[in-house]
Design a protein that fits this description.
The chain has about 325 residues and is of the alpha+beta class. It is built from five helices and 16 strands.
Length: about 325
């Protein structure tokens, strides 16, 4: 019996120890990596500066380039007209369509034919009624064929009134059709304006005024330079993608004669797939700036060092709790 009591006492003691030790074990199991397992604010070397957006701006219509409005190295805004293709013939078509639209609209708004048909119908009815009254007073004074002709004239006048209404509708449809032709001509004129699709810098002009271009021919090359992308690789053995995503970064670039410049930015993409060497790719967007001579300092093709701020509070997509299931989403559990 003593042995039995000793065993029960020992078992109870173990249960109490397990009860108090469980939270500590869970906190150690699901705690964030310590500074010893991962560097504080790691710096990635050999990152590549790349372009976020660029455009080989094409001609949309065939024709002669009559004007180039920009030159290489010029800053342009989205929607700026960079070049002009000859649109004289299209302008003439637009003027003609506008005139035809005005004429059709004038006819559609006019009720002259309808009012004339109303009066003609009234006169034809009066003439037919007079012939009937004359024959009533003196039978046969007006031949029946003449009476029938007057009746037909009255009916025709009534139909002409209806036809006048139909003609007004047709003229309204014609005016709408001409309005569509005006819009089509305006669109053709717009397509002969080579516009910039983005804010950027003209880095190449491929054609000259007086040359013939066809649809798809590249007229200019425009590159976004006010913001650039920096690409690098993070060790998957030291950091998880959720610890890097959305973090602020500092990008250091060495320019000519060893001049070092730093740019702030933020991680905008983390590849969830590991690549060769157990690394995953990240992309950060960085605000570029100009030097004393208005030249942009960060240029695509440069290499850079990128320091990621992982120590300060940042956007975290998952939270850790002390419950046995460890990681959970911010949303409600199911």
């Amino acid at each position: 019996m003593k042995i039995h009591r000793y065993l029960l006492t020992a078992l109870s003691t173990l249960q109490i120890v397990a009860l108090f030790a469980a939270p500590l074990l869970n906190s150690q199991l699901f705690a964030a990596p310590s500074a010893s397992s991962a560097e504080a604010n790691p710096t990635i070397s050999g990152c590549l500066v790349t372009i976020i957006d660029e455009a080989q701006v094409p001609a949309q219509e065939a024709g002669v380039l009559v004007k180039i409005n920009v030159h290489e190295g010029e800053q342009v805004k989205r929607g700026d007209v960079l070049a002009q293709i000859d649109d004289m013939q299209v302008q003439i078509q637009k003027i003609a369509a506008e005139a035809e639209e005005r004429g059709a609209r004038e006819k559609a708004n006019s009720d002259v034919d309808f009012r004339f048909a109303v009066k003609a119908e009234a006169l034809a009815i009066v003439e037919h009624e007079r012939s009937l009254r004359a024959n009533a007073r003196t039978p046969g004074s007006i031949p029946q064929i003449e009476v029938d002709r007057l009746k037909l004239a009255a009916d025709k006048a009534g139909l002409q009134k209806e036809q006048a209404l139909i003609e007004r509708k047709i003229q309204s449809y014609t005016a709408d059709n001409k309005a569509a032709e005006v819009k089509g001509a305006a669109n053709n004129m717009e397509r002969r304006q080579v516009r910039s699709p983005l804010d950027g810098l003209v880095v190449r002009v491929n054609t000259h005024a007086g040359e013939w271009v066809k649809p798809g021919d590249t007229v200019l090359h425009v590159v976004q330079v006010d913001r650039v992308r920096v690409e690098g690789y993070v060790s998957a053995s030291k950091y998880n993608p959720d610890e890097i995503s959305g973090r602020e970064v500092a990008v250091d670039v060495t320019l000519a004669r060893g001049q070092k410049v730093r740019f702030p930015g933020r991680v905008v993409f983390v590849n969830p797939l590991n690549e060769a060497g157990d690394n995953f790719r990240i992309l950060a967007e960085v605000q570029n700036r100009q030097g004393p001579n208005q030249q942009w300092l960060l240029r695509p093709g440069l290499t850079a060092d990128m320091t990621i701020d992982v120590t300060s509070a940042g956007p975290v997509k998952i939270t850790r709790d002390m419950s046995p299931d460890g990681l959970r989403t911010d949303g409600p559990r199911r």
